[in-house]
Structures are given as structure tokens and as C-alpha cells.
Task: structure prediction
Amino acid sequence: MFRILKKRPQKQHPIEEMSNRNLPLSTELDKNLQILKSIYKGCIDVIYHPFLIAGKTNLVYIDGLSDTEQIDSSVLAPLMSKTIDKSINLQETCENIQLSNIRVVKTYDDCIKNISNGNPLGLAKWDKRSIKEPDSESVIRGPREGFVETLGVNISMLRRKIRSPNLKMIKMNIGSYSDTSIIIAYIEGIANQSLIDEVQNRLQKVEIDSVLESGYIEELIEDNVFSPFPQLLDTERPDVASANLLEGRVVILVDGTPFVLIAPVSFFSFFQAPDDYYQRYLISSVIRIMRLFFMLISVFLPSLYVAVSSFHQEMVPTTLILSMASLRESVPFTALIEAVIMEIVFEALREAGLRLPKQVGAAVSIVGALVIGQAAVQAGLVSPLMVIVVAITGIASFMIPRYSEGVALRLIRFPIMMLAGTMGLYGLALGFIAIVIHLCKLRSFGVPYLSPIAPTIGRDMKDAFIRSPWWMLNTRQHLTGRINKYRQAPNQQPKPKNR
Result:
């Protein structure tokens, strides 16, 4: 689909075949048209519109990207109404056109970029989706708007939330073929300059054919590509992006996707929902503690059941263990195999529900789980208690508000079950220790992933496990202002292979 390149090849497309991309435009119109037509050879949507004004003139644009109505009314009509006179200065004539963003290009490179962006004369017209609430981040109370695929609209939505001139934006273009526009947004005076430089430096090192979604960027700039845990936060909500900007973080906007990236983040950032800050703090704090508790259940409950039923029956009350033994009497599999099969089936049903149309997806997931679970119990393939354990685990995983973090926790559930099925509670403890060590070593743009727990920062605890009342949230996060102290070079990534 695309290639990741360490070094850009010498010849990729006709633009780079010219001896110098910054070669100035020729004074001869025919020569300029000849070069443009050779570059856009085979592009039937590129329109060349010749007309006479101050001599022979030609208008070049891409059909579907430029606003042809404005071209006709605001450009061609005023120009064609002029008297044909070669003595007229064309540039002065064009400057009289009533357009706010008309500009002069002097090189072939600028000419190609503007044509490709639908701006041959500053008249871009993109089809865009209307603003609506994101399906992946719906809230009970809060704004009902989300980012769209148009970069300009997304920038304006941030500007409407933060009406300060200190909201700065750096523009970059990545992708040798897609030439995708990317914006680095931050608030001057709040965001740490070393963080801004680090984000910009990592993005400048990206060499790729195309960037079609922010996920491309996320994977190429994160600190540890082999970790299942996400190190950047993605969101479709302008209010979430604005709140993180005000906390000293950096927001990365990518043209063509409603998902923006936020850096740096911590483990606890993925358990904070927008509703937490729109409801009363007592309710938000209780719900956040419940999320963390059910996160532990979703990861360790199946493993705990496998370890106890296989190795540590003496830890279970006699009445309960006799009930468990009677329920498992006709099951031909061990507890480990039984748990793995049920978890795989449950994950398959959940994934199928996501990919199916919304009208039938939820019904298929619920009905499929009920039917398969009941049929498996009646057939003697699994015990009723295992069905209950898997159901509780699945419900607990739905408490995690961020999909990327939920997928990571669902993934590590399986190796934990393997350890519990082979070494009992000792394996479960080893798995827990390994996860904690990995999280302690993980960084997100220099910020420790387990902050404010490791390192312990008391004042940042006010918005970690609980959400303190607004009158107590009177300081910004400590680590975003002291990134240099905890900076760690990103892990050496393997050389990407061409695909």
C-alpha cells in the first residue's frame, strides 16, 4: 500500500525529475504549459482554460478541487471584460480581482503545490462532512461537536475554543506523493519549548510515500513501537484537544482525518472521559475509580479463575469448590483451554459487532454471545461459571473510555492467562510485575508513562485517580513543564522495509 523510506529516492515523480524543483517559471507561456502538461500527463481532471487578456493567457486547475463557480464569476468574467491589449500589465490586472487570498507564484514547485491543493487562483473548494458529535466519544453532558476531515475547519474549531493569540501553529507537509498537511498546535508560554522541538524534530524525520490517517504518524513518532500500550492520545473532540493544550501538551492535526494526536500522555490519561469535567466532581471521581477497578478485573479475572481452579483449590471455600467441581465434571478441557476458547470467541463477536452495520452490529454481538454461551454450556464444552467470568470480563473492558487502551489491555490478557495456567498465582504475580516494570520504563515524549505515580508528584494526583473540584485544580501538570529532567531518547527503531 505504501513504502516507508529512510532516504527519498532520486526519482519518484515528474516534479522531481526536473533539474531543480525551485526553478523559476519561464517568461514563455508555451514552455510553462509544456512542463505542466508533462507533469500532469495522464491526469484527465486537470483543466487548461485558454483565454485572451493582455495577450495569450491560460488558467490551470483541477476539476473537483477548485470552485468553478467562483472561477467563472470572480476571475474569468472580470478578466474577459477587459479590453484585449498586450500593453496591459497582467499582474496589475489580476490584483484588481476581488479575491482576498490571491497571490503570485514564481516557481514550478509553488505552482504544482497550489494546483494540487485546489488553489490555482486561491479558489479551493473541498467537499466536507458536516460537524456532528463523534460516535466513538459520545458524552451525556458536553459539547456535541467533533473534528472533521478538513484541516481548515479543525483549526477554526480550536481557535473558537481558545481565543488567544498565544495559540501557535506550525505547518508541515509529509508524504512524497500525498504531500499531506500537518499542523503542530501549542500554546506559547504554557507548552515546554523542548517538547515542541522534539515533536517537530520527529515529524521532520518521517519519510513516507503517503499519510492517509493520523495513525501513520502515531506509529512513526512514538517512543516504543513494540509496546502494546498507546503513547499518544487520539481524540475527535475539540474540547478534549483544547483542554490538553491548556495543560501544556501538543496537538497534532492531520489533513484528511478527524482524529488528532495529543502528546505527551500518561497511563491515567486513557481513563479520563470528557464527562468527568462536565459533571460534579464527586460523581466523576467515583466513576473514575470504578474504571480503574474494572480495568484490573478485565485483565486479571480470567487468569485468577484459571490459577485458583487449577492449582489453588485450597484457597476456595469448600462449598464453592464442590460446586465448581460439579459444574466442571462434564467439561473435557482444562480451565486454561476453556478460558482461552471463550475469550477468543468473545473477542471475535465483539469485533464482528464493530464491523457490521450499526443497525445489526449490536444485536449480533448480544444475541451471538447468549446463543453461543448457552449452547456451549448445554453441550458440556464449557462450564457455566466460565461463561459468567468471561461475561464479567467483557463488561469490565467496556468501562475503559479509550479504544486504543482497551485493545492493549485485552491483548495482554492472553499471556497473563498462559502464565496463570502453567504456574498458578506465581505466574499471575510474575505477569503483574512484568507489566508494572514495562510501564515504568515506558515514555511518552520524555514523560514517564506512570506519572504522577512514578515519579510521585503529589499535586498532580488531584487529577489522576480522582477528579478534584475545580477550585483545587489551580496548577498545571508538573511534568509537562519539566520534560528535560525526565527526557529519555526514543528506542532505536528497526530499519523499515519497503512494501
Q: What stands out?
A: The longest strand covers residues 167-174.
